[in-house]
Design brief:
Largest sheet: 6 strands, antiparallel
Strand order of the largest sheet: 4-5-6-9-8-7
Distance between the termini: 51 Å
Number of domains: 2
CATH class of the largest domain: Alpha Beta
Number of helices: 7
């Protein structure tokens, strides 16, 4: 069956109170979710969609732009609009490491150690960890991989008990930092996080294999121990085209 043949003209009802662009968006999204279009497929042209559903080009463009903005489709100048790779969805409401999150999603986690060092805490880092400026902390900088694809540049600032020692060998490949720390008696109970869109540095763009100026997401978290003491301040810069974060809330 051809790419355009799966379009259902009946999915857009002019008698419905719902806006036409919204109905069209839902129809196209349904085609994606039912698996009729696969990652990398070129979707029908604007003209084909206009003719199939009997709507204007403005309506088609609005529906497609919504799906591009939401990460379901990707437009390439002069080539058309394609089905995007599914975004990796991380739950900020659950306290899980990157490795644990990837395992839950059925993805293979990986890591490249960029730097492991100790240095004095200063400024915002000292404030986040609630320590005096000049106190020595561990810093672990890694490039995180999902199915061998670079997705996150993470920098962990750690205030650890004196008996805890980290080595490059412990953090090789698919190793989880949290598992290493738990094995040495470090506990994690809760975290606080903020999210914002940023323009990554040249180095971050190179590591993540994106064009300079590409949209990136910055997540900054403070992780607390069972004793409600800050253990980790982590800064994660992730690819905006590969990630989305969800937060669950409830009424007090």
């Amino acid at each position: 069956m051809g790419i355009a043949a799966v379009l259902d003209p009946a999915a857009v009802d002019r008698e419905s109170p719902l806006p036409l662009y919204h109905q069209l968006r839902q129809a196209l999204l349904g085609t994606l979710e039912q698996g009729h279009w696969q990652k990398g497929d070129l979707i029908p042209t604007e003209r084909e969609i206009c003719d199939t559903y009997g709507v204007s080009r403005i309506t088609v463009r609005r529906a497609i732009n919504d799906l591009v903005r939401e990460g379901y489709l990707v437009s390439q100048q002069g080539k058309g609009t394609f089905v995007a790779r599914p975004k990796i969805q991380r739950q900020l409401s659950q306290l899980r490491s990157f490795s644990e999150e990837m395992e839950a999603l059925g993805l293979r986690s990986g890591s490249r150690l960029l730097s492991l060092r100790q240095e004095p805490a200063i400024g915002d880092v000292a404030a986040a960890l609630q320590v005096r400026e000049g106190e020595w902390i561990w810093i672990v900088e890694r490039l995180r991989l999902a199915d061998d694809e670079p997705t996150i540049v993470s920098t962990s600032h750690l205030m650890l008990p004196a008996h805890v020692v980290l080595t490059p060998a412990q953090l090789h490949g698919q190793a989880s930092l949290w598992r290493v720390l738990r094995s040495q008696g470090v506990t994690f109970a809760r975290s606080e996080a903020t999210i914002q869109a940023v323009e990554g540095s040249v180095r971050e763009s190179e590591l993540l294999e994106v064009q300079p100026g590409s949209p990136l997401l910055l997540v900054e978290s403070i992780v607390y121990s069972d004793d409600d003491v800050p253990v980790e301040y982590i800064r994660m810069v992730s690819r905006g085209d590969r990630y989305k974060y969800t937060v669950r809330t409830s009424l007090p």
